[in-house]
Every structure is written in structure tokens, then in C-alpha cells.
Write a structure and sequence with these properties.
Elements: H1 2-18, H2 20-41, H3 45-68, H4 73-78, H5 80-85, H6 91-120, H7 125-153, H8 160-186, H9 192-221
Length: about 220
């Protein structure tokens, strides 16, 4: 059984790296958003520091939406998703593996690039540490929750707009808590309560989302 799950994981990683252009696209989008903001509002250090966390998190949400549509798209189109669902493996675990792989290949480079983004927006070290912690906790939450909506819209032609309409309101609480944590770090205030809330949301998503994704995929297949 473990060998089958490892096989699914290797397959997902191989498929992800076969489409390098699609992997780079969300990162380039995020980099452009973050670098264009200082040009649009002016290079004032205090202004950039004040809006920086919100800019990075909004760019992270939008870039994740940009790459999320392909999570189940190709598997649905070529019939391999149906084969996976008929393989006898729990669909919830297959969905969790696919979401983890998507998060790893799409958000891992973002975390590596985060010091550069923090430098662009004049964030202090304390602000950057808080930002990195919120990204580590929050971006998997984006992937798990977003995958539910992707499963529901996988059979819809041009479902990207519908996906954005469904998910942006859901992501607003995460955006509020994440930027609040970085703002607290800027004021030298404790931000563990905000991290605890994001962590609790992530744990709930890990526990519930795989089953919700499996159900949404079954609905889309019917």
C-alpha cells in the first residue's frame, strides 16, 4: 500500500516538472506584483513597510489561484482521475497527496524567494520572520481549501473565474489574520494568537479537506 502511495507521489512530481512554464507563471506573477507596487505608490520606506505584508499576501493568494486550476484538470481530461478513483485506494488520501505535491512545487519557490520580496518592501527582520511563519502556515491552507473548489469546478469549461469568485471571500479571514500578525511584529507586539488561529484553521483543513475534495471529485465525475 505504501508503495502505491509513493508511486502516486512520484507521478505527481513528474507531471508537475513536465510543465515548468506553468510552475514558473504564478511565481513570475507574484514577483511582478510585488515589484510594481513600489513603482506605483512611490519608494517611501515607511509606506512600503506599512503595505508590504498585505501586498505579499494578496499576491500570494492571487498567484495560488492562478496555478490552482490545473490541480485536477489534466487528470480529468485524460481520464486518469477516473482510473485513480477506481484503483481501490482511498480517494481522500490520493487528493491529499496531490494537494501536498501542488503546494510543494508551487509554494516552495515562493518561500525561498520571500527574503527578496521582504527586501523590496523594506520589511524589518521581525516582520519578515512573522511573514515567513504566516506563509508556512497559511499557504497549505490555501491549497487544501482551494482544492475543494477545484474539485467542484473541474468539469466546468473556463472555471477559473468561477474558482476565483468562490475562493476569494473564503480567503479573506486568512488574509486578515496573516497581515495582523506581521503588523503586530512591526510594533514589537506578540503575534502568537494570530499564528495559533491560522494553525488551527490549517489543522481543521488537513482533517476535513481530503474527504471534502474526494466528495467534490465524485460529484464532478457524475
Amino acid at each position: 500500500m505504501r508503495a502505491l502511495y509513493r508511486g502516486v507521489l512520484k507521478r505527481e512530481l513528474a507531471l508537475a516538472f513536465q510543465h515548468r512554464a506553468e510552475l514558473v507563471q504564478p511565481l513570475m506573477f507574484m514577483l511582478m506584483v510585488v515589484t510594481l507596487f513600489p513603482l506605483g505608490i512611490g519608494p517611501g520606506p515607511e509606506t512600503l513597510q506599512r503595505i508590504g505584508p498585505g501586498v505579499i499576501w494578496i499576491a500570494a493568494i492571487l498567484s495560488s489561484l492562478l496555478g490552482m486550476e490545473r490541480l485536477f484538470r489534466e487528470d480529468f481530461q485524460d481520464g486518469s482521475l477516473e482510473q485513480l478513483m477506481l484503483s481501490g485506494l482511498p480517494v481522500s488520501l490520493i487528493a491529499a497527496i496531490k494537494v501536498f505535491t501542488h503546494w510543494l512545487v508551487s509554494t516552495g519557490p515562493l518561500l525561498i524567494m520571500s527574503p527578496l520580496l521582504a527586501m523590496f518592501l523594506n520589511l524589518t527582520l521581525d516582520m519578515y520572520v512573522a511573514l515567513l511563519l504566516t506563509l508556512l502556515l497559511g499557504t497549505p491552507l490555501l491549497s487544501f481549501v482551494g482544492a475543494i473548489a477545484v474539485g467542484l469546478t473541474v468539469g466546468v469549461q473556463r472555471g477559473g473565474i468561477l474558482l476565483a469568485l468562490l475562493l476569494i471571500p473564503v480567503f479573506i479571514p486568512l488574509l486578515i489574520f496573516a497581515t495582523s500578525a506581521v503588523d503586530s511584529a512591526a510594533l514589537q507586539l506578540p503575534y502568537l494568537p494570530q499564528l495559533a488561529i491560522i494553525g488551527a484553521m490549517l489543522l481543521l483543513a488537513i482533517a476535513v479537506s481530503p474527504f471534502a475534495i474526494a466528495y467534490s471529485l465524485r460529484v464532478s465525475q457524475n
